[in-house]
Amino acid sequence: MAILLTNDDGIDAPGLAALAQALAGLDDLLVAAPAENQSGVGMGISIRRGLRARRHPDGPNGLPRHSLDGTPVDVVKYALGHLLRDKPPRLLVSGINHGPNLGRNVRCSGTVGAAFEALASGIPALAVSVGYTLPPIWEAAQAYAGKLARKLLELSVRRPGRPILLNLNVPSLPPEELLGLVVRRHGSGGFQDDLVAGAADGAFTLGGEWRETPGGDCDAAAFEAGYAVITPLRLEMTDESLLKELNRDWRDDLAAGG
Length: 258
What we know:
This protein has 258 residues and is an alpha/beta fold. It is 29% helix and 25% strand.
C-alpha cells in the first residue's frame, strides 16, 4: 500500500516537494501531478482530447514522480487506474497549495477537487493549503499535514469502507506564531468573482474581492484569526431540511402532475 501525493500547482511546485518531505517515512509515496498549473479547475475533467503521461526523474529517496497534461481529477483517475491499479493507495494527500482554500472557494479548488475524486473512489483524502505570502512559509503546514495523515491512516483501519476528506488550511506564519489547530465548519464566504473588462476590445480577466461569512465559527474566520483550521467535507450535498419541506408542502401538487 502507498500514499498518493498530488496537487493543482503542477509537478514542479515547491509545495508538492514540501509535502513529500513532510510525509517521508510514513509509507511508500508516489507523486502524480498535473504537468502544468491547474489552479481553479475544481473537479473538472478533460474531454475531447487525449492526455499525455510522463515519468519524471525520481525525487529524494527514490520518490517516483509522474505527470499528466490534464486536470487534478484527471491525474487521480490516471494514478488509480494505471499507476496504482493493482495496489490502491491507503491515502491521498493533495497540496501543499500556495494560497488558502476556504469557504465557497473550495468549489473551484483543484487541490480540493483531487481530494474529492479520491473520496468518490473510496480513498481517504487530505487537502492541504497554506496562506498566500511571498515567500510562503511551509513548516507549519508540513507539520500538521504529517500529523493528520497519520490520524487518517489510523482512522481508516478502525472504520474500513468509510473514507473521509479533511480540508486543512494553515496561515503562512512561523509555527510559533500560530494560535493552534481547530476544527471548524465550511463557511459561505469567499471571493465574489467578476469578469473585469481589459484594455483590449473583448478582453476580460477574472477579478473579485473577499466577502466575509456572517458569524465567527467558520473556516475562514479561524484562519484569519491565526489558527490552522480543519474542515471535514463530503460529496453528499442534499439540503436535508429543504428536502423535507418540499416533500411535505409540494407532495399533492407533484402527485397531481401538470
